[in-house]
């Protein structure tokens, strides 16, 4: 069900209802959809409003009967005016919508002035209906004055009450229909401050007044008319109050429901999008279709999502340069310095890189190095280490820092053996010497507070580099120190055998070498 899946809800109902279609629909399809919805809502709302006003004025409110003296001219003028008003409203509204939203057809963003005009469009469309309803109030009141003057007040006040209620419902439905246009106008921006002056508070108070105040005014009107007539029976008065109560309850329920929907829709879109953010889906944005503080909330969510995406992108790029473990270390502490750790070191150095640079074009050399380092990074990552440095044609990989490993020496030795196999199979034109050792190093951040890096310092680093030099001329291109083999797990140490005792350059203590079986 789409109701319980935030991703499907945002995709299929980005504006709060399937009636409004998906985001990104073509301008032509959008105009057809809005044209149909606005026409249906306008005719339905005004037809129901006119019917209720007629029933109240003729059958419900106290006073002389209008039906007994209803003339042929009344039966002709009333439906004719309704048809005339609907035709005028249709043409006027269509032209106004087309003019205000011309920027949609031009396929360009709306200017600030066009944003304001677009968000005020429901108000102007509603004022057109109010004007036509007031025209009906004047026309029918004048007709009643000439033919039934005692009923003129009843007709005038009934039509005015119906005008207020119908216009309010029409405003909410028009605002609902124009959400996709509002979202296009507010793309990548917040609602203009000019529209936030009244805001959600004023709109809520207004709808409360119309939903509660106007029906109460209708009851007061019934009481006034009953006092004027003077001879209203208790049964008649009970019927009047009962009928007006039903209208008041229905009107209040409808306005409250529509008003609540207009508030809930943008809040729900933010809620669904936050659920996706919580699941790690940062590629989320929601359409901003509300001109009040709720629109600012939607725009604020989009800015937050943009910031999270940018932060994640920086973190990803940072991690590619220094490794995810170093990123986590840097985020948890920005202190300079380090700590002693037992770690294994793998040093990989390309053989004959000077000749390669002299014999091949620079672009070809770079491509070769990238293929070479891709294999190195893949195998180091597979064993839980991280490549700390790329030094020209060499790479320094650390196992056991900053992320602790259960068997750092075994992981480094296994990575070395896997690398020799893969380089021979996948990149035979690039030969490398690999040196592996293990011991106590100082791992931490060195540099200045303005610019520093994570590194490891210690005798094992120097020893691994020297062992890689020896490995360049060794049969298997891989040499480890026996101390690293001794620290490894039995499963890995069984893959190695002891070799010569040598003193490598730069060290005074001899190193017992080990080579793969």
Describe the structure.
With 517 residues, the protein is an alpha+beta fold. Helix content is 64%, strand content 13%. It has 19 helices and 8 strands. Strands 1, 2, 3, 4, 5, 6, 7 and 8 form an 8-stranded mixed β-sheet that branches. Strand 7 and strand 8 (511-516) form a beta hairpin. Helix 15 (362-382) packs antiparallel against helix 16.
Short description:
Helices cover 64% and strands 13% of the residues. It is of the alpha+beta class. Strand 4 (432-448) and strand 5 form a beta hairpin.
Terminal CA distance: 60 Å
Q: Which band does the percent of strand residues land in?
A: 5-15%
Number of helices: 19
Mean pLDDT: 83
Shape from CA axes? rod-shaped
Helix content: 55-70%
The tally of beta strands, per DSSP, is: 8
**Secondary structure category:** alpha+beta
Unreliable stretches (pLDDT < 50, length at least 5) are: none
Mind telling me the C-alpha Rg? 40 Å
- Largest pleated sheet: 8 strands, mixed
Element order: H for helix, E for strand: HHHHHHHHHHHHHEHHEEHEEHEHHEE
């Amino acid at each position: 069900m789409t109701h319980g899946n935030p991703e499907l809800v945002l995709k299929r109902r980005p504006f709060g209802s399937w009636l409004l279609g998906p985001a990104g629909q073509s301008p032509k399809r959008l105009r057809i959809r809005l044209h149909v919805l606005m026409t249906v809502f306008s005719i339905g709302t005004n037809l129901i409003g006119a019917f209720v006003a007629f029933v109240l004025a003729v059958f419900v409110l106290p006073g002389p009967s209008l039906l007994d003296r209803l003339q042929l001219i009344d039966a002709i003028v009333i439906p004719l005016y309704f048809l005339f008003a609907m035709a005028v409203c249709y043409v006027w509204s269509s032209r106004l919508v087309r003019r205000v939203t011309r920027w949609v057809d031009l396929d360009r963003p709306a200017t600030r002035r066009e944003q304001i005009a677009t968000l005020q469009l429901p108000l102007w469309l509603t004022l057109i209906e109010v004007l036509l309803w007031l025209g009906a109030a004047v026309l029918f009141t004048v007709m009643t004055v000439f033919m039934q003057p005692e009923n003129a007040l009843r007709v005038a006040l009934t039509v005015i009450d119906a005008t207020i209620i119908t216009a309010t419902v029409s405003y909410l439905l028009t605002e609902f229909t124009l959400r996709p246009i509002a979202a296009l106008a507010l793309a990548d921006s917040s609602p203009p401050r000019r529209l936030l002056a009244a805001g959600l508070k004023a709109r809520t108070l207004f709808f409360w007044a119309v939903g509660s105040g106007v029906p109460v005014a209708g009851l007061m009107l019934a009481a006034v008319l009953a006092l004027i007539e003077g001879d209203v029976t208790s049964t008649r008065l009970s019927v009047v109050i009962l009928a007006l109560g039903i209208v008041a309850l229905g009107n209040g329920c409808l306005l409250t429901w529509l008003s609540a929907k207009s508030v809930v829709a943008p809040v729900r879109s933010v809620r669904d999008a936050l659920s996706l953010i919580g699941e790690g889906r940062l590629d989320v944005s929601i359409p901003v279709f509300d001109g009040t503080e709720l629109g600012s909330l939607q725009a604020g969510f989009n800015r937050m999502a943009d910031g999270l995406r940018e932060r994640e992108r920086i973190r990803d790029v940072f991690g590619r340069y220094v490794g995810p473990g170093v990123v986590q270390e840097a985020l948890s502490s920005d202190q300079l310095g380090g700590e002693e750790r037992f770690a294994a070191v793998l040093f990989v150095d390309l053989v004959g890189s000077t000749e390669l640079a002299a014999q091949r074009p620079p672009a070809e050399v770079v491509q070769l190095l990238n293929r070479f380092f891709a294999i190195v990074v893949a195998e180091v990552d597979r064993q839980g280490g991280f490549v700390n440095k790329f030094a020209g044609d060499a790479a320094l990989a650390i196992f056991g820092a900053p992320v602790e490993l259960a068997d750092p020496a075994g992981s480094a030795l296994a990575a070395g053996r896997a690398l020799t196999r893969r380089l021979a199979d996948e990149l035979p034109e690039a030969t490398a010497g690999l040196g592996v050792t293990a011991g106590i190093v100082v791992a931490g951040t060195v540099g200045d507070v303005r610019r520093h890096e994570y590194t490891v310092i210690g005798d094992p680093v120097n020893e691994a580099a020297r062992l890689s030099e020896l490995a360049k001329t060794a049969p298997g291109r891989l040499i480890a120190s026996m101390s690293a083999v001794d620290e490894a797990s039995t499963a890995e140490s069984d893959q190695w055998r002891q070799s010569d005792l040598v003193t490598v350059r730069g060290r005074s203590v001899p190193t017992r070498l080990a080579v793969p079986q």
